[in-house]
Amino acid sequence: MSDADRRAAVSRETSETTIDVTLSIDGDGDAVVDTGIGFFDHMLEAFAKHGLFDLTVQCDGDLHIDDHHTVEDVAIVLGEAFTEALGDKRGIVRYADRKVPLDEAVASVVVDVSGRPFFEFSGEFSQPSVGEFTSHMAEHFAMSLAMNAGLTLHAGVEGDNAHHEVEALFKALARSLDDATRVDPRRSDTPSTKGKL
Predict the structure, then answer these.
(1) Fewer CB within 10 Å of terminal CB in the chain, N or C?
(2) CA 135 to CA 68: how far, in whole Å?
(3) Comparing C-alpha atoms, which of 114, 100, 95 is closest to residue 184?
């Protein structure tokens, strides 16, 4: 499988958002992001940097209402991009888990690139918002990503500072997805006894 095979470009337009995403799983961590929400842009840039994904996100959303549709829909499109870029998932590691600290906060993510979407979350965010980003939308982002990328995803946070908790979560998502989507040089088939994920 060549690096060029693990790329995707996905667009989505609704009455709430217009989104264009490009993703290269085997990238350098380069990101160009504009969602209109400064802290969310920062989180997506951190996600790309720590996952070594090349990522572009352009989103024009209904921010005059709130941040919900923008965050949710970007996660939907990003999940679809992962699904497209991974194709039949031949040769991938499939499972991964990471714990990432940021000062007092710790986030944990366990992922199975299974094709069977499931999401479980534990913990709470210590403040209701970080800038213009509603803290609980970090959990919703992870859920929407899991549902649309076909991930079994268990995640959690603990800490005292929502900025740190959210950032640790995005970094843990990035590191675990980087690990799980890597190609195992020992494997030429799809990592499932069913023969398909």
Answers:
(1) N
(2) 11
(3) 95
Give the mean pLDDT of 48-63: 98
d(CA 30, CA 78): 15
pLDDT tens sequence across 3-25: 458 999 999 999 999 999 999 99
Q: Are 145 and 78 in contact (CB under 8 A)?
A: yes
The phi and psi torsions of 16 (rounded to 5 degrees) equal -105, -30
* pLDDT confidence band for 195 (50 / 70 / 90): confident
CB atoms within 10 A of CB 76: 22
Q: Which residues contact 89 (CB under 8 A, 6 or more apart)?
A: 113, 115, 190, 191, 197
Distance in angstroms (rounded) separating the CA atoms of residues 39 and 50: 16
Distance CA 61, CA 17 (A): 4
The CA distances from residue 130 to 8, 42, 84, 123, 163, in Å, are: 30, 11, 32, 17, 6
Cβ atoms of 155 and 107 within 8 Å: the answer is: yes
